């Protein structure tokens, strides 16, 4: 009876039948089924939504592809804009420096006289990042082990939350804190000790009264990369099946032996990934490093000396670049940094992925 | 040589869940003892109390006395010492995936600081022979990872790993339940051979398995041990009605 309301059917039927059917519809169908028919009318009127679906589809594809677009745009822009430096200096930008004939000392970076070399910046970036790993990795793994294996439940939530929170602090805040708290602390208390006890290595000499330098940069970087390393380490440790822990315990292992053999050993590839990811962040970190590294384009054996980093020199000089070549050279440094951080991050992600859904899980 | 186990008034809890209630039994030395019962009846918890693995769960608690040989394991020893004397094989094979077959077997000894390579080689070979795996893996002991073996081989590797530390008691928590029939029968043959040298306690869901390998059988139900007797008696003429119902398949 409800069918009567569909126009096509009504038209196709012989006239004789329309009368009772219409009457039926009025008498029976209308009052009790009024709502249903309204819903049906509404739904039929909506069509198949092909346009909306299509639009949505296109929109999402555009969003997805925009990531490729952004990466390609950045890379091409960096390549094109550093063209001048590539043609004038070439790849020797990264390994050759100008030596001042009068002093015999290298003059790595002299925009006024047109001498450009990336060596001190590459050196500064590598030294500060690697030093920060040395400081951050044991601490981060310790935090992760404590959180996953021995932390009382009541402390676990807050501690994990605070660790993650460290990652949310803007780097300028870290920079300010470093300038006002960390650097004076290192200058007054830590650096003299380093000079006293480790001065014989010639890696620590007390010829820098500012307290700025590689060590300050490394310490602040270590704090900044701690959360990412420890939270990823925690993740890969949690991915180690419980049966592995039991297997080691059942052999008569102490708690530490269980953690070493049953957990860390199984998670080691992922931990390496977490460390490399931390390295990736340290390499690219700009603001905090710029504020404490001293910004001197020189290379010193002493880790307490002032230096500079790839990101720091771009941040410091780009706005006031003295000429096209200067600007182009800065962009070339940027390109190098871009390539290195992308590669480092890719390796790290693959390693973490291997552990969290790869080999150890298959064995069980 | 194995030693006997004497359990007196053993009670165990998971949180507020009283999973084992007043268990008393004597497990004879150098024999296989099977524990049967429906899922959740406490038989796994019971064997985990015999090497103090139960208490690795932070909410777990145990009271009572367990004597392994002459040693009161809850009062006179640390868990670590007990677990060196009482080996355990778990339901699902859990070899160390990052270690070679050799290192898997030697792991218990290396863990305890054993470094004499000549002796280690001998022990690894003997343990793998004892677990009937030697012929299948002898050519790639150090080449293949423990995870590259099949499920049944992995379980025999885990048995070899447990045997390598020369335990007095071997606990097996449903060692064949994740394996195919061929691997299962290999494990059963193995238990049959091993029980002359070790005291074996095996938890199983498979009553035929219990009948095939064990001299004694205990029936657990709802955290209590209903009956403990010779396997023959349990399967032919049980004293308790509930045991009879279970073994004839009327529940469980």
- Biggest sheet of chain B, strands in spatial order? 6-7-8-3-9-10
Estimate the global geometry of chain B from the Cα principal axes: globular
Percent of residues in β-strands of chain B: 25-35%
Query: CATH homologous superfamily of chain B - what is it?
Result: P-loop containing nucleotide triphosphate hydrolases
Summed up, the helix count of chain B is 10
Helicity level of chain B, as a percent range?
A: 25-40%
Give me the number of helical elements of chain A: 14
Under the CATH scheme, the architecture of the largest domain in chain A is Orthogonal Bundle
Quaternary form: heterodimer
Strand composition percent of chain A:
under 5%
Strand-pairing-aware structural class of chain B: alpha/beta
The span between the termini of chain A is 61 Å
Going by CATH, the homologous superfamily of the largest domain in chain A would be: MetI-like
Number of strands of chain A: 4
Radius of gyration of chain A: 32 Å
Query: Would you give the CATH topology of chain B?
Result: Rossmann fold
How many β-strand stretches of chain B? 10
The CATH class of chain B, by name, is Alpha Beta
Record the SSE blueprint:
The complex is a heterodimer of chains A (364) and B (252).
Chain A lengths: L6 H6 L2 H31 L4 H32 L1 H6 L9 E2 L6 E2 L1 E2 L4 E2 L2 H32 L2 H16 L2 H28 L15 H25 L3 H9 L4 H30 L2 H6 L17 H8 L6 H34 L1 H4 L2
Helix pairs in contact in A: 3-13, 5-8, 5-10, 5-12, 6-8, 7-8, 8-10, 9-10, 10-13, 12-13
Chain B lengths: L4 E10 L2 E11 L4 E5 L6 H8 L9 E9 L2 E2 L6 H7 E4 L11 H11 L5 H14 L3 H4 L13 H14 L4 E5 L7 H14 L4 E5 L3 H7 L2 E6 L2 E7 H6 L4 H7 L5
Parallel strand pairs in B: 3-8, 3-9, 6-7, 7-8
Antiparallel strand pairs in B: 1-2, 1-4, 4-5, 9-10
Helix pairs in contact in B: 3-4, 3-6, 4-6, 6-7
Characteristics of this structure?
heterodimer, A: 364 residues, mainly alpha, MetI-like fold, 2 domains, two-stranded antiparallel ribbon, 14 helices, disordered C terminus, B: 252 residues, alpha/beta, Rossmann fold, six-stranded mixed beta sheet, four-stranded antiparallel beta sheet, 10 helices, 10 strands, 25% strand
């Amino acid at each position: 009876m409800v069918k009567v309301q569909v126009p096509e059917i009504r038209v196709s039927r012989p006239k004789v039948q329309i009368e009772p059917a219409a009457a039926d519809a009025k008498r029976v169908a209308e009052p009790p089924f009024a709502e249903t028919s309204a819903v049906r009318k509404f739904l039929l009127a909506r069509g198949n939504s092909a346009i909306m679906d299509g639009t949505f589809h296109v929109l999402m594809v555009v969003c997805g592809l925009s990531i490729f677009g952004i990466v390609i745009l950045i890379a091409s822009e960096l390549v094109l804009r550093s063209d001048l430096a590539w043609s004038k200096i070439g790849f020797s930008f990264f390994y050759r420096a100008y030596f001042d004939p009068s002093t015999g000392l290298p003059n790595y970076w002299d925009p006024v006289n047109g001498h450009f070399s990336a060596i001190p910046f590459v050196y500064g970036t590598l030294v500060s990042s690697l030093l920060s790993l040395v400081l951050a990795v044991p601490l981060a793994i310790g935090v992760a082990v404590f959180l996953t294996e021995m932390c009382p439940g009541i402390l676990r939530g807050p501690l994990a939350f605070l660790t993650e929170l460290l990652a949310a602090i803007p780097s300028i805040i870290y920079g300010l804190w470093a300038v006002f708290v960390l650097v004076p602390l290192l200058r007054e208390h830590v650096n003299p000790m380093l000079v006293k006890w480790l001065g014989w290595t010639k890696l620590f000499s007390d010829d820098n009264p500012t307290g700025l330098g590689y060590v300050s940069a490394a310490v602040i970087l270590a704090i900044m990369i701690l959360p990412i390393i420890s939270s990823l380490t925690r993740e890969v440790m949690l991915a180690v099946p419980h049966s592995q822990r039991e297997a080691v315990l059942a052999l008569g292992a102490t708690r530490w032996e269980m953690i070493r053999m049953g957990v860390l050993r199984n998670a080691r590839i992922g931990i390496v990934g977490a460390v490399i990811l931390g390295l990736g962040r340290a390499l690219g970190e700009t603001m905090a490093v710029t504020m404490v590294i001293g910004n001197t384009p020189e290379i010193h054996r002493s880790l307490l000396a002032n230096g500079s980093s790839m990101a720091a020199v771009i941040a410091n000089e780009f706005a006031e670049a003295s000429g096209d070549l200067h600007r182009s050279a800065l962009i070339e440094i940027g390109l190098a940094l871009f390539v290195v951080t992308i590669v480092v991050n890719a390796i790290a992600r693959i390693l973490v992925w291997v552990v969290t859904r790869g080999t150890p899980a298959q064995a069980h | 040589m194995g030693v006997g186990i004497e359990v007196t008034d053993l009670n165990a809890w998971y949180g507020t869940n009283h999973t084992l209630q007043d268990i008393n039994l004597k497990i004879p030395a150098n024999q296989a003892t099977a524990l049967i019962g429906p899922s959740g009846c406490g038989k796994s918890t019971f064997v985990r109390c015999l090497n103090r693995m139960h208490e690795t769960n932070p909410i777990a608690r145990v009271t009572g006395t367990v004597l392994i040989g002459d040693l009161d394991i809850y009062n006179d020893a640390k868990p670590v010492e007990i677990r060196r004397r009482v080996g355990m094989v778990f339901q699902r094979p859990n070899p160390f995936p990052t270690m070679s077959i050799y290192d898997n077997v030697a792991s218990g000894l290396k863990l305890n600081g054993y470094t004499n390579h000549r002796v280690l080689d001998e022990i690894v070979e003997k343990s793998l022979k004892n677990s009937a795996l030697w012929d299948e893996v002898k050519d790639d002991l150090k080449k293949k990872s423990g995870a590259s073996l099949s499920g049944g081989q992995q379980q025999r590797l885990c048995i070899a790993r447990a045997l390598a530390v020369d335990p007095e008691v071997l606990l097996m928590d449903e060692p064949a339940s994740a394996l195919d029939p061929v691997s299962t029968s290999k494990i059963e043959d193995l238990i049959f051979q091993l029980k002359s040298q070790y005291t074996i306690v095996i938890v199983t869901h498979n009553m035929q398995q219990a009948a095939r390998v064990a001299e004694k059988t205990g029936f657990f139900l709802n955290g209590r041990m209903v009956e403990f007797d010779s396997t023959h008696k349990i399967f032919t003429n049980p004293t308790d009605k509930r045991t009879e119902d279970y073994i004839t398949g009327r529940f469980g």
